[in-house]
Structures are given as structure tokens and as C-alpha cells.
Design goal:
The structure holds 2 protein chains of 2 kinds. Chain A is mainly α. Chain A contains 19 helices and no strands. The mean pLDDT of chain A is 88. Chain B has a 10-stranded mixed sheet with strand order 3-4-5-2-1-6-11-8-12-7, sandwiched between helices. Chain B has a two-stranded antiparallel ribbon with strand order 9-10. The chains are: A mainly alpha, B alpha/beta.
Amino acid sequence: MGSAPDPELLVRVALAIGLTSLVLAAGTVLQILAMRRRRLRRQARVDRFLEVWRPRVYEAALGEPPRVLPPLAAEDDVTFLLLWNQVQEGLRGPPRAGLNQLARMVGARVIALRRLDAADPTARLLALRTLGHFGELEDFWRVAAYLDDRSVPIGLAAARALAHIDPARAADVIWPRLLLRRDWPMAQVASMLREVHATAIGAALVRSLPDLAPPELQRLLPLVALMDDARADVVVSTLLATSEDPDNLAGALRHARSPALLDDVIRLAAHPAWPVRTQAAAALGRLGGPPERALLTRLLGDKQWWVRYRAAQALLAGRFGGREEVAALAGGLTDRFARDMLAHALAEGGR
Amino acid sequence: MSLHAALEGAQWFFLAYVVLLHLAYFALDAVSIHVIGREVEATAGNVLPVAFSGLEPPITLLVPAYNEEATIAASLWSLLQLEYPSFEIVVVNDGSKDRTLQVLVEEFGLEPFPEAYRVSIPTRPVRAIYRAARFPTLRVIDKENGGKADALNAAANASRCPLVCVVDADSVLQRDSLQRIVRPLLEDATVVAAGGTIRLANGCRVSEGFVEQVDLPRSWLARIQEVEYLRAFLFGRMGWSPMNALLIISGAFGVFRKQALVEAGGYRTATIGEDMELVVRLHRLHRLQGKPYKIVYVPDPLCWTEAPESLKVLRGQRIRWQRGLLESLAANRGLLFHPRGGAPGWLAFPVMLLFEAVGPVVEMAGWVLSVVAVLLGGISWHAVAALLAAALGLSVLLSVSALLLEEMSFHFYERPRQSLVLLAAIALENLGYRQLTAWWRLQAIVQWASRRKARWGTMERTAAWQQGKKG
């Protein structure tokens, strides 16, 4: 492109780019076809396996005596773990004994231990779940090693398996991870803990309460929903009495269940942060009585929509008179926002 | 410099531009291949039944509707069946001129509801609010026409949940799309928005509001768009996401933290590309204020939508998209090369500006200049043919690499006939379609530059797939 341009050079470069690209494209198409062929072959094998094994696993789930089982090829072991776990986790109640017997007959625990270090994350996850269902104490520390896996599903599967194997000991190893693993979604943690009873974790939370920084506390507070009333009350009352963080106060109020907390709730209904007032209004609906009706009526006129909304819902919760009484209250209100909100809540049917 | 030298210099520039453009997308392609591996890991648990804990944050589905009488009921029936523990639906009838509101009233038994409507984001006046007698979580806002952005703002005002999910009234989600798209927001408190994958419903069989069988569209126009969608989502979005530089979340399916949406001022009504503008603005505001945030793309939650099957409708769509892109970049130009702009300001924004916003100008100028140069004897016909071969080869390679990503991820099209059709669509795209859409986009640039008022136009939808017929 200097002072003496060579027109042929442009043609040669452009053609070279075009032809190279087309050759690479053809190579990519061949790669796609090869991948697809492998995948379809794998899928056909899975289909054949399921045709033979699905009836046997369902029979086992129904408690029928196991038939003579065909040999389980190494290539099919992950498919077996998948099928077995899908049936196992789709069940509620006792028929799992038959499934466990079937799994023992095919050596599923040995397969799971072998697959714990598989490259395929699905195989690792299924292995952890399987070991959890087996519940063998000797597998505890082998499974615990996966709590720190960088993958969220693998880490949570390990926690869940541990809780199945030994709930009490699991709490000791899971609790520190709950503090460290900010990437573990609390909804999934709660789902895992709910399955395995959260008593031990609840006790750990109560013990650690004074040492937790506000952001940590805020993240873990939803777990209070899983605790028994006595422990939940300890957590909530401690926070209401000591915390100055509005997010934690609002979080604690959300879980306030004991009438003994009413004085704190009334005090926080005047908190400058509106999320705290909102949760205080909702808590008054659960814990208050006729004496708190005037306070809720005042909150109906709050400048924040959410405070008014929760106050209106609280008034309709049944502790402050019937619907007719609340409707009559609406008629007597001079504040248009308060009146509109009460009409809104009345139309919703109260909660 | 002689005219011949100038013309040849222009050809070199054109070639270099085409190569650079494709190199940028090949880089995104490489990132996407890496990301797909990570996604497989992140979604390993999807093979087993999901146990909800009840602690999942509730979500409001925001469904703007304008003249959607043909599809709105079917869409809502499918939305009501989504698998997620707690969600509400707020439909906004944005001053429709057809029977959209009546269809909703009749189908869902709507009753006037005395909502204490809260205006966090100003909108056109709301005429009435309704609630479904049988489905208390379904509300309908009837308001004066103000456009899609205004409708979404009205729906966000009525939302009572911390997360909002935007869904087009004519789109179909997978049953588990909601739980999948929300995953990054549950795992990371700094994620303010997430977008899913949009695929074409033309040609698919839809039953009971869900896609039952996936197939390619029957018309070549839609098949070529299928290839475009594969490229746009499988590496256009997936490639930018790990760098936190995703500038687009489709208006057909995306989830936002409501607080971030409201704090940003909601959707901008003065733009025709409100979905992209909001995302670029979220980047700009968070970056410039130094607030930690992430905007992510999640490949596996799927949303199916209908592609235009006529040139007239396609032209309108492409002009809208190009104008939306230009308006989004212009409105947030403060992000470009800002010291705190990070990957969005230093990488994604310049790439969008250079290759997407200005691309049609360079492309059309290149072809016009080539013809002129040949006519003036400046370069030979075979030089133009060689340039065409380079552009075509690179484009084919890029599209085929999107097919590779499709094989690695969803592998919806595995029959040999489907593969052949897609390869033919890739070739056909370069023989007329690409030039035509570049021409339309150039028209959009001229319209935008001349400040001509943008119009939404009419998206004529057959909605045949919604009835369970082949599109």
C-alpha cells in the first residue's frame, strides 16, 4: 500500500483469507459431525440401558423382590447412578429400602467412590448424592473433601450427602463453610438443611451470633426460618436488642414469632429506616393485639408505600377485629393514602 | 496520490476492516467455548429433581402487551404454569387498539382492583387495574399508550417482588426457564441483571403453551435468522458475559433486581431500543459510581419467539434494532473510554460502535466503492471477487463456529436434513440477505442522524406455532 501499490497482492491476500476460512469451516463441519456421531451413539446406548434397567429400578422402588440383574458395564455406571438417584429423589417415604438393596446388588457405592474424581461434573454430583443415600459413616471424610469444590452444585451435594451420613457431625463441618461460601445460594442451602433437619446448624448459628459481622448475619438470617421457636427467639431477641444495622433489624423482625418480642417491635415501628418499619408493621400483624391497633392505623399513613401496605395487611390479619370493623376504620380515615391502602388490602382479601 | 492508488488503498482498508471485525467475533467465540464447559459444571444438578426451600426470592413477570389479542391468552396460560415457587404476573395493556383487554377479561375473569398504585417511575396515565378472580397473582394494568418502555415501567411500579423478569407477550418460556435464569442472582448479590437465550419458535410444535418439538422454520428468510440468532446468543452474548461486558439483554426475556431498575430510573421511553439502553445505562451508572455489579448471560434458560417471515416486517425490525443500538450508545457515550469504564467502556462499547453501529456504513461503502473502482478501471473484477471471497469465507467460518457451539450446548438440530438446511442458510445469508440488511441498517443510521422520529411499526405475527401448528 505504499507509493507503488501491487493490485495482485490484494487479490492474493483476499483469496488466501477466503480459501483458508472455507477450509477451516469445512474442518469445523467435520468436527461437528464427529461430535454428533459420538453423542448419538452415546445416547443410543443410554436408551438401550434405560429400556432394560428402568423397569427393574421402578420394581425395586415399589418393594418388589429384585429379578436377576444383567451385568452393569463400566460405560453404563453413570447412567445407572442417574436413573437410581432420579427415582430415589422423586420418592417420599419408606420404599427406599428396595432401591438401596438394588444399588448394593450392582455395587453402586463402589461405583460412586470411583466416580468421585470423574472429569464429568454430573458424574461427580451423582456419586456424592449416591454416597449420601447410602449413608455409610466410613465415607464421611471422603465426601467432606468436596465441600470446598469450586463448583456450587458439587459443594452443596457434598454438604447434603454429609448431612445424610451423619447429621450431628455434618453440622460441625458445614457451618464454617456456610460462612465462607458466599456463592452458596441461601435458598439451596435451606433446601438442603430442611431435608436433613437444621437443629445442629441452628445451634451453631445461635453460638456464633455475637461474632458475626452484619453482612454475614444478613446473609444467614433466612436460616432462622428453619429453626425451632426457642432458638429462633434467641436469635431474634438478641438482634433486636443489640443490632443497629437496619438490614439485620428488618431481617430479625421478619422472623419474630414470640409475643415476648412485642415491646421491641413497637419500638422499631418508629425506626427511621423504612424497611425496619415495614417489617415491624408485618410483625405487629403476627404478635400484636387491640392495643396496637392505633399504632398500625398510624403506620397506614407512613410516607413509604411498603409500610402502609404491611400495616394494612396486619390490620386484616384477624387480631384487630373482623373485616367489617377494618372496613369501618377505612371509612373514617381522612388520609387518602391510608384509605386507599386499606381498600387495596381489603380487596386482596387480607392475609 | 493517484486515484488508482486511493481506490486500492480503500480496498485494503475494507479488507482489513472485514478481517478485524471477524477476528473480534472469533475472540468471543473462543471465550464462549471455554464458558460452555463451565456452564456444564454449573448446571450439573439440573439432571435431578429440584427441591425448592421457600426462601427463593419472589419474581414479578412484567408482560407488556400492545395489540396482542391473538397470542396473549396462550402466552399467559403458559406463564402461569412456570416452575418457580413464588411469582406474580403483571400484564400491561398499553392502549391496545384491538381486543387485548377484552380477551384478558374473558379468559381470566378479570375484575377491577382498587390498587394503591405506587409511582416509583413516572409513566403515561393508568386507566384501571384488574385482578384475575381465579389467579390472584395475575394483575392487568390498563394504561394509555406510551410504548413498550413506558409499559414496562408501569409494570415495575406495580411489582411487589425484589426481582422482575421481562417477558414478551408473544414469547414462550420453558417450564424451568425462570428458575434457571434467576440462578446467578441467587448465587451472587452483586448480579443486577441476567439474560437468557432467545430461539426461534417458527417451525416448532407448541402444545399447552410449551415447545414440544423443535424444528427449523420452513421459510428460508426465518432459517437465515435462525443462524443469526445462533451467532448472536451462542457467542455474541456468551463471549461478553465473563468479562462483565454484556451490553444487551433481550427485551423478550431478562431478569433484573427491581431496586437497580428503579434506581436507574427505569426504562428510557425516548428510545426505540429500550432493552439495550437500560443495560448500557446500568453499566454506565455502576461503573461511574464505582458500585460493584455484574450483568450476566445464562445460556440454558430458553425463550422462544417468532421471527418475521416477510421482508417488510423484517425491514422494520432491523431498522428498529439499528436505531436502538445507536440511541443506546449515544445516550451512554460517557461510558466510552471512561477511566472507570472497565471492559464495557474499553472493549464492548468500542466493538459495538466500530463493527455494529458503523459497520453498515463501511460495508455498503466498500461494495459501492468496489463497483465504482471497477467501472473507473481502478481495480479489476477479480479483485472484487477476491474481496467477496474473503468476506464470504470469514462469514461462513464464523457461522459454522456458531453451529459448533450449538452442538456443544443445546444440540437441537441433529437430523442430517436440519444440518444441511442450516449450512445452506449460512451460504445464502451471504448472497443477498446480508447486503439487504446492511442496506436497511444504513437507512436506520440516516434516519437516526437526521433525527427522524422513530416508529415501532407493526410486527405482523402469524402465531401459527402458538396453536400447535407448524410455523
